[in-house]
Amino acid sequence: KNHLNEAEAKKASGGKGAVGANGKGKEDKDGDDGEDKKLKNALSGAILQERPNVRWEDVAGLEAAKETLKEAVVIPIRFPSLFQGKRQPWKGILLYGPPGT
Predict the structure, then answer these.
(1) Structural domain count of the chain
(2) pLDDT beneath 70: ranges in the chain
(3) Mean of the per-residue pLDDT values for the chain?
(4) What is the CA radius of gyration of the chain?
(5) Cα–Cα 20 to 30 A to 95, which of 14, 19, 37, 101?
(6) 94 in a domain, yes or no?
(7) What residue range is the signal peptide (predicted)?
């Protein structure tokens, strides 16, 4: 019981340092260990900060590809009632080829 009280007191005071029961070591000032920081840096490049101003009409040609993307991405978001029960939306899309084509 004393150990629990000491642990809660240390947690409340913001004590960081040696490896504890949770197995984590020393953390930096943001509360992230090294692996979390690496993961955040890797993912930050993949997240869009601004919404691009591109519409379907701006993409010339490739009508079949645009319809397939709409079917796979847009329709399940706008009409989730169509994808209940055994009918499930697509789980992934493989895009291939050089960018801009």
Answers:
(1) 1
(2) 1-5, 7-8, 11-32, 101
(3) 75
(4) 24
(5) 37
(6) yes
(7) none
